Amino acid sequence: MRAVDFPISDADPYSTESMTDPYPLHAVLRELGPVVRLRQYDCWAVARYEDVNAVLLDWETFGSGAGVGLANFRNEKPWRVPSIILEADPPLHTRTHKILARVMTPQVLRDFRPVFEAEARSLVDALLERRDVDGMADIARAFPEKVFPDAVGLPSEGRENLAPYGDMVFNAVGPRNALVEQSMASAGTVIPWIMQSCSRGGLTADGLGAEVYAAVDAGEVTEEEAGMLVRSLLSAGLDTTIAAIGNALVAFARFPEQWALLRETPALARAAFDEAMRLESPVQAFFRTTTRAAELAGVSLEAGEKVLVFFASANRDPRRWDDPDTFDIRRKSGGHVAFGLGIHRCVGEALAELEGEILLTELARRVRSIAPAAEPVIHLNNSLRSFARIPLRLTAA
After folding, report:
1. 244: which residues sit within 8 A by CB, 6+ positions away?
2. Cβ neighbours of residue 174 under 8 Å, at least 6 residues apart?
3. Is this model's pTM higher than 0.90 or not?
4. Is residue 331 one of the residues assigned to a domain?
5. Rounded Cα distance, 70 and 365, in Å
6. Which residues 6+ apart lie within 8 Å of 142 measured at CB?
7. Are the C-beta atoms of residues 37 and 7 closer than 8 Å to each other?
8. pLDDT in tens, the chain (397 residues)
9. Which of 153, 241, 328, 363 could make an SS bond with 352 (beta carbons 3.0 to 4.6 A apart)?
10. What whole-number distance in Å separates Cα of residue 40 and Cα of residue 70?
11. Is 271 among the domain residues?
12. Residue ranges making up the domain that contains 142
């Protein structure tokens, strides 16, 4: 028996229409109520900022250990060995998260800054030799796919496997639809490369990956667990960053006055990246699973139920944000949940923000205008908001 009546919706967040333009659906779900039942997937959904925060902060009730996708790992076999960071709760999560936090200290990130800045200058040099570019391939992918694998210590050969692997990981969060089947088609080639590259022997001796394996020598994790942590670094630090940079470029192309403002004040680069994350959240939604019977916004939930948590909807909830559909780099965007919240907040957040800040700063200093050369083409994925192509016309400063 439920404590209160609750709305039921036939909406499908995994339809092509919803993934192409998710924001009308988010608005409908927010207006239906704080907790909505999605009939098609037999799960709950929360789309308002307040309720998204409540779920994300209460890991003891809304756990990640049964998977952050629609599949319940308590009842179904996972498509891969679950992540011991993203798909784990304490005490395992406490132990493994401590290692990644130590690997990516503020000092380590400061050490990366000059290397990232040099790569950004080199990239913009190449961009300005051309007039028309693909913002996705030439900027949003080109920069992170160089600096991040280098930082981790991945081999240079075979990095073309990184993009299809990310597509698999984020598609697998949703239902077993055609997108999952398409992305899994290359698993036979991609997954062995990922496993080998994340092994101790596959990594350089001076990257973040080697630092993770130092925890094996200290007796903190097993060799197998270290490989899984390096794999988690890839999911946390690459695909979402690529999506975020691409989404930022689309936002600046659509709001040219904001690009002019950033050019006037390049110190706003980090705030601009945060605002782009809020406006077009790379991770649209993840699931949690109730670990026990609980009440959420007056609705009684039973143990073992899936709850779809709409990060992107929370980040445009007018109950929290003024004029939420507008891109405004002077907005105080702190509090957005694009990186998640609570103990499962993205471990790659600081590195992603560093990359975004450095790249936007360099572009702002040397590119006078970013204009759309054609409409961007969405890349459909069950949980990532990203683009396949972003045709842009750059004008040098």
Report:
1. 273, 276, 277, 280, 282, 338, 352, 356
2. 14, 69, 70, 180, 382, 383
3. yes
4. yes
5. 44
6. 123
7. yes
8. 355 578 999 999 999 999 999 999 999 999 999 999 999 999 999 999 999 999 999 999 999 999 999 999 999 888 888 899 999 999 999 999 999 989 888 888 889 999 999 999 999 999 999 889 999 999 999 999 999 999 999 999 999 999 999 999 999 999 999 999 999 999 999 999 999 999 999 999 999 999 999 999 999 999 999 999 999 888 778 999 999 999 999 999 999 999 999 999 999 999 999 999 999 999 999 999 999 999 999 999 999 999 999 999 999 999 999 999 999 999 998 899 999 999 999 888 889 999 999 999 999 999 999 999 999 999 999 999 999 999 999 999 8
9. 241
10. 12
11. yes
12. 8-396
**Strands in 131-282 per DSSP E:** 132-134
Q: Give the DSSP letter of residue 141.
A: I
Whether 1 is in a domain gets the answer no
Number of domains in the chain: 1
Report yes or no on 227 lying in a domain: yes
CATH assignment at residue 62: 1.10.630.10
